[in-house]
Amino acid sequence: MPIILPNRLASAALLGREGIEVSDRLPRHGTVLRVGLLNLMPDMARTEMQFGRLLGTSPHRVELVLAVPASYRRGHEETEFYARWDKTSLPQQLDGLIVTGAPLEHLPFEHVRYWRELTDIYDWAAANVGSTLYVCWAAFAAMYRFHGVRTRILPQKISGVFEQRIREPNDALMSGLGAAFPCPVSRYSEIDPDNVPWRRGLKCLAQSFESGLCLVADAAVSGHYMFNHLEYDADTLKYEYLRDRGRRAAAILPQNYLPNDDLSQNPPQLWRGAARQLFSNWIAIVAARRSTHSAADLGRSAA
After folding, report:
1. Active-site residues: which are they?
2. Is the separation of the CB atoms in 265 and 259 below 8 Å?
3. Rounded to whole angstroms, how far apart are CA atoms 168 and 161?
């Protein structure tokens, strides 16, 4: 099904060249799921493509609503198609929301320029959005906002592709993923599972012996915390390694990633199938919750 994006967006044109059906118009008939993308990543276009590609291959028609926090600072050209959200300018209706990662792991949350707007968005999403997917830094920020759980800075960055063992195979988000799936990991932080308030109804859906928590469900806020990066392209970890090496000589080669650890080789995207399955599952959850809410609204109108 097509994904709906502004037609002058560079990533929309690139997705079209890949064979993803892209439209800039809402259809006259049929259901369209409105999914917000709160994009906090420095390379906004690459991130748009990564999530747009996964949403554009789902069986549901999706309108991707691009946004940044009100005080987010980037160039005008990068944010031309983005709404600026704060407590006074949140969207009227979203079926789903994705909040991306951000390179802010060494900064206390309260010191982030847009922290106040971000917490307003988190609180609004918990009360108004069918399902929210928090990714990497955004997931750490959400765990801190909703449960006061602080992150632990690692001695060195963990980077690579690690097997994630599924802990809740009957959960709808895990459908079709088998017993485990490979997932890119790229972060300087982690959360100690012993510090998670599981008694509040949080569930660990997937976890790695090597890289720690991967995916946690939080029904109380209709959210999922994804601490890793299933949306990554095949070459993203390689790109990040070369970037980090350019900044400091101690950058560590991503594990379980490059053939024979050879930088001249093209890495396989071992997680492609898992990424498509998980995002298809998530969109199905978003669609089901929209249907439930629509039926409830009709019932109230009839009464």
Report:
1. 136, 229, 231
2. yes
3. 21
Query: What are 273-291's pLDDT values in tens digits?
Result: 999 999 999 999 999 998 7
Using only C-alpha atoms, what is the Rg of the chain? 19
Mention every residue, 6+ apart, whose C-beta is less than 8 A from residue 52.
3, 5, 11, 12, 15, 20, 22, 64
Distance between CA atoms of 209 and 196, rounded to whole angstroms?
17
Which pTM value belongs to this model? 0.94
Domains and CATH numbers, the chain: 3-302 (3.40.50.880)
The highest-confidence range among 68-82, 97-111, 280-294, by mean pLDDT, is: 97-111
Question: Is residue 191 a contact partner of residue 151, using CB atoms and an 8 Å limit?
Answer: yes
Measured on CA atoms in the order 191, 197, 200, 201, is the torsion positive or negative? positive
Q: How many CB atoms lie within 10 A of CB 175?
A: 14
